[in-house]
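Q: Convert this sequence to structure tokens.
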Amino acid sequence: MACFTVSALAALGVGAAKYIVRHHEKKNELKVAEPKEYKFGSEVKVSKKLGYLELALWAGSFVLAGEHLIHGEVSPFPPFLTAVSEGPDAVREMLTEMGTVGVAMLLTIVAAWGIGVFLVDLIKYRRHKKAETKALEAK
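A:
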């Protein structure tokens, strides 16, 4: 009924965190010169990684909201959630669904994002180390 609101609220929080991290990255960018050694995960900025998570959360939320709209669980006029107008038992059921299905969906999206970010960082790290090794062998 309202499980999509969990990922929408998480997307708002990740969006706020992204802007805070971006601010700190810009502030620290002026102080830091070229790094002396390449570190795992340092090629893609954290704010960009958070942007990917935010996009995934919004996409999941919109897809589920559309699915709920098609099945008549959400209406385009107040009260938007049809369970709210059905009484206190329906509200309890809605909150239970948000706590189970919504949180499970949120954790799945975050886990998929984490695995994706790790794999991309691993591939970039291996490419960098391989290029570094070839450069040392050429000397």
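The mean pLDDT is 84.
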